[in-house]
Amino acid sequence: MADVTRNEAVEDQKADTNAADQATTEDSGREDEGRGRNAKGKSFFHKKVCRFCANKAKIDYKDADGLRRFTTERGKILPRRITGTCSRHQKELANAIKRARAICLLPYVAD
Predict the structure, then answer these.
(1) pLDDT digits (tens, 9 = 90+) for 87-97
(2) CATH code at position 97
(3) Domain range enclosing 64
(4) CB 3.0-4.6 Å disulfide test: which of 13, 32, 76, 77 passes with 72?
């Protein structure tokens, strides 16, 4: 008889802890943990598309405002992994930025 009540007490305790765990996960606001992660917890990213390939846009060294998007605050050229440009357009972009710097449309080093 004592074994039966002990087992019932253990089962009740397990049920209480499960209910408490469910309440804490609901209250913590982490119901939508899937943002930026898959089911196994590994992060993933969206493939960036080259805006020059997608829009059939031309890279112009005289367009200083357009070229500023591809440089840092310090004046460095941003890499492909950040901008999402393809290798062909990244080379053209680098040459256009260098030309714009040579004719003083863009600074070599920001102040």
Answers:
(1) 999 999 999 99
(2) 4.10.640.10
(3) 51-102
(4) 76
